[in-house]
Amino acid sequence: MTIFEELQRRGLIAQMTNPEGIEKALNEGRVTFYIGFDATADSLHVGHLLQILIIRRMQMAGHLPIVLLGTGTTMIGDPTGKTDMRKMLTVDEINYNAECFRRQMERFIDFSADKCLVLRNGDWLKNLNYIELLRDVGVHFSVNRMLTFECYKSRMERGLSFLEFNYMIMQSYDFLYQFRNYNCTMELGGDDQWSNILGGVELVRRVEGKEVYGMTFNLLTTSDGKKMGKTENGAVWLDRNKMAPYDFFQYWRNVGDKDVIKCLKMLTFLPIEEIEAMEKWEGSELNRAKEILAFELTKLVHGDEDAEKALEAAHALFATGADSENMPTTQLDESLISDGGVPVLDLLVSCGLAPSKGEARRLVSQGGVLVDDEKVSDIAAKVPVSAFEKGHIVIKKGKKVFHKVVR
Prior knowledge:
alpha/beta, 6-stranded mixed beta sheet, 5-stranded mixed beta sheet
């Protein structure tokens, strides 16, 4: 099976500028392609994971990836999918985030000199002469057409800054620059990047008279169209300091029945034939599929040992409700103790089980919180200090989330 056939069979491909040309290029030679990552945070998240695994698949097939860290484009901010302008970061913040990205990607991508290039677009974008850019690049962009693209059209009512309006031109110039200097002939990205990718493909054609290619991949969405990778506490991060391996495991263990097979196809390296056989699974078999998904992804992101620990902890908790040494754990903040106890709402927030006291209050009011197997129904309740005499307490949120607080 060719890499093109595998991408199709796994349901990854969304749109292509020239399907026949792309298939031929991928099947008949070594393609230099790129995917860009704007350095908007100090950790990658699940939204990046699909693109990183695409790079790995393409690399395993013998193609040469360029990992483009957006040290220049991050200074502008991509308006795609945003209702308001992105927070403006300093140069130091952007460079720090880009380095965090690079270190995290080393787990997934072979960065050997002949296997991958790692570039930073700030190296060329920051040195551009504005008037020359307008004359040499801007002349090839139609404002009327740009305003028909969803990334701009959806922002017109709320307000679109001129800064953000330049983003497509900057990303397109990235493709032109890499074509000229690294013989890069293909840009890949999530399907929300389709208009930006088209801009680059057309710019190379207009300026250099050469055909290059663009291909986008389906976004990770639930069966009802919502983006995956968000929890009530924020993004599903790949950094263990932002999201514990056990919590990462549990996120995937709890995906919907209609989503598990799709996620297995798109995100794991299990043989596609093995996954397709699971399409017939029903009922409790789907729970087994979810466990496989959670284990495989935790192993990819955090390693074999953490994946085994998360699996063992999940079995122990859900089979017996018993404590486990691998349960997510928080050290009690002694400053929370008052009048011989710790307010339950403060505990929920300090453990990350609720993002705010308001959300914690809602959880308690709805009967979704247990402390040491006893339901908490009073939002003003406190856990007495005496409860910690055994060294810890266990908080249960809903049916599936357990957390240990130690003192």
